[in-house]
Amino acid sequence: MKSTIEGRIVKVSGPLVIAEGMRDAEMFDVVRVSDKKLIGEIIEMHGDRASIQVYEETAGLGPGEIVISEGAPLSVELAPGMMSQIFDGIQRPLERIKELAGNNIARGVSVESLSREKLWNFQPTSVTGDYVETGDVLGTVQETELVLHKIMVPHGVRGTLTRIESGDHTILDTIAVVKVDDGSEREINMLQKWPVRRGRPYIEKLAPDEPLLTGQRNIDTMFPLVMGGTATIPGPFGSGKTVVQHQLAKWSAADIVVYIGCGERGNEMTDVLREFPELLDAKSGKSLMERTILIANTSDMPVAAREASIYTGITIAEYFRDMGYSVAIMADSTSRWAEALREMSGRLEEMPGEEGYPAYLGSRLANFYERAGCVRCYGQDKRIGVLTAIGAVSPPGGDLSDPVAQSTLRIVKVFWGLDSALAYKRHFPAINWMNSYSLYADKVGQWMDRNVAPEWSRLRGDALKLLQDEAELEEIVRLVGQDALSFSDRLKLEAARSLREDFLQQDSFDDVDTYCSLNKQYRMLSIILKFYYEGVAALDNNASYNELTKIPARYEISRLKFLPEDQVEAKFEQISRDLVDQINAVMPQGV
Amino acid sequence: MAKEYRTIEEVAGPLMLVQQVVDVKYDELGEIELPSGEIRRCKVLEVNGTDALVQLFESSLGINVEKSKVRFLGKGLELAVSPDVLGRVFDGMGHPIDGGPEIIPTRMLDINGQPMNPAARDYPNEFIQTGVSAIDGLNTLVRGQKLPIFTGSGLPHAQLAAQIARQAKVRDGSGKFAVVFAAMGITFEEADYFVSDFRRTGAIDRTVMFMNLANDPAIERISTPRMALTAAEYLAFELDMHVLVIMTDITYYAEALREVSAARKEVPGRRGYPGYLYTDLATMYERAGRQEGKDGSITLVPILTMPDDDKTHPIPDLTGYITEGQIVLSRELYRKGIRPPIDVMPSLSRLKDKGIGEGKTRADHANTMNQLFAAYSRGKDAKELQVILGEDALSEVDRIYAAFADAFESEYISQGFETDRTIVETLTTGWKLLSMLPRTELKRVKDVFIDQYYGKD
Question: What is the ipTM score, two decimals?
Fold first, then answer.
């Protein structure tokens, strides 16, 4: 234990406090400021002066007050008890704060991140005498019905297990003793601490190739994400970023979801808190909240903690990844995080880069997204863990030349560009199919061809081509009117419209449409395109364009969104038959 | 007795530097006593050793560096509250200006408030009927929402805000209502419009007003909205009232903020506004809402004049990222004579889905809303095409859509500032319009609702 380092405040300017007498403190050490014990972090050292960003409101602080270093960097507590919880940006449990301080967040509330009293039933999976290494699973705790929390050997520990105890324990009880190679004994409990700014290590990174299914047609079919990939959702306000993020948090096929509300609306976090416990996981039928952890630093909460919230979230996510789970992290919004960075940078009087953002914005963002990935975790079983990162970006005025958007685009592999013009038309999700992309599309296409239907990639390609052609044809229509187009072009427009309205649009608020299985996605896509292919053939056989576009099956297609999953097979068979019959019926007789 | 300092070193714009201070805290309130005995207030922006940089809340006119005295009060800026604030008019600093007595406070509240714990928020989901179809039907307001009006100079935003204040009610008619009105930098005439409208309707008795007019010191504008929100919090969370807060005009507020930031020589963000504009606006807007275990609520309707009607200007842009939607007024519709000229396409209420549907409005509400949007959007496209290519170029269906768009504007949106429509009237008008379209076009409406309402009068 280091001797306590005590300094005195010399300057207070917003969330920035400068203290002297801090020569022995280390960069990024956590400090307690004044007798109110506000939490801060050292972000710069000049001689014996430390610049401290304070994670709580600094009103009422003045020169001469005491600053004490805790001698350790900002860390999160990792142990059972995190699931279904809502934490603030520095992992203080908000429910607990509410009990202690009422409906508003008072300052200097001192609470443990995780309960020290709660008992967890620990079931060993290793036995005395086993030789264990970093990352090996000693045993498990059923944290919630959905999450089996694996208790791993902490980093840097290897040796022979001399004792392991099953039964109910608090996170501080010793559950195992390891005789380390140098002969000393090391007691292990369920609690690990990890500094948030350092990524948790792994053996090696692997190239991701399996899709992360989300039940969203626009995403799974058109611009897929892979497990261990990175994606960004930029869009102006009102274009539905948050709804898309919430949909992903609800329906993505991840084992664990960490949702960071970073500088966003309080009501959105409340929404998640209220809604998720009632939503059931498609696979297990259990409440979605049981696999979700929320980190909330709403926009009215202190700005410095917003900067930390992203790291707090991803460190927790990495911890679950290390257990071999597929973890998805959603950050809404990274722009607010960048603004917090900018505000601190301004107070530190750093030379600004673009738009006042610090010059290190790009590297910090890259650092965050690079912590995602598909990795081989520590542990002798060589398990694979996955961390998928999805960040929302809120560019000013929707302008993607914004430094945050640009720095993000350089890193991420999937880009879901939201478009206000689509949002105005209430085309949701307002993902613009013309400028969005997924660099995983080919890989996922091969996976889909193997696992869903061999013609998947072809259908997707055809659909995108139709949409591309539509955009070009629209130009012509705008100049000379629809009459100038050939019937086959007009059919193309009709088919594209059907794609847009009947496939790409998905109603997040409809009980059925909110989640669409891969099979249903495939069926919908294939039947819409079937109309097009059959229609083209019919036109070649001199069928009447007007009658062709009026066949009743098209109306049926437009209702498919609301078709419950259990009726999919029968209904699609029927529509498929009807479609062919009706098209045949409009064909001129005798052909 | 607080220590007095006669060590004012410099005064520049809204900032003042006081030296050799001891024990001064960040964000502390101070008083400046002028040689004439007049007292002005200020707050500490930065303390650095024995230097305190303070921001004046009032004008610096008449401050004498040599003879003025400064005292620090050991607390932040506070507002005196008691149930008697209802029906009163205050200036931007919370002093009564209606000739009535000072408020005898039951509480003194720090005007900065404290962030609301998201775990303690109650989700806003109670439908408020404003009587305006474009809002109730398409961009539904709920209790505890923050929904700004994005407008331009010369548009009738004041009329719309007054109409909302006058007509807003919940369907079961429960709860005590109050209005808190904050004027920031608007003209006397504009403020007077609200005052006389509140007086005309009798709402004045349950209204609290904070007035910082265009000729009042710009710097007071920074505290005005916080005063108003503090009063609103008191009424909502201590007296269990449902409070509608109208703040006008956020643009002037942001300009005052820019003034202070520029005086401090801070690195500016977009268009010279400080980099913390988002955070600053958020600490105001986020005070709206509902809390667990409390009956009251704060619904916030800020009015914001978009400079040059530009929605991407930093003030509307950042506001839009914080608030739960926006009501956008359109100059084009205004010229066409549509009153209120609400442009429903860029307007949005993010909380609408929680406030509508069975038991709240009516089961078909969500479907009809989406269908009206989609149809109006298609109708507008068709009309655009019609302008370029003439009516003949339109397909049969598109011609119907074009007619729909016109009817929608004149019947649904344009209802005037005095008409108070119930939600059922709004929905019925919607169905009447939708019945213009062929049934097969109603792709967003479930069959049961089509059967029930389509083509019925």
Answer: 0.87
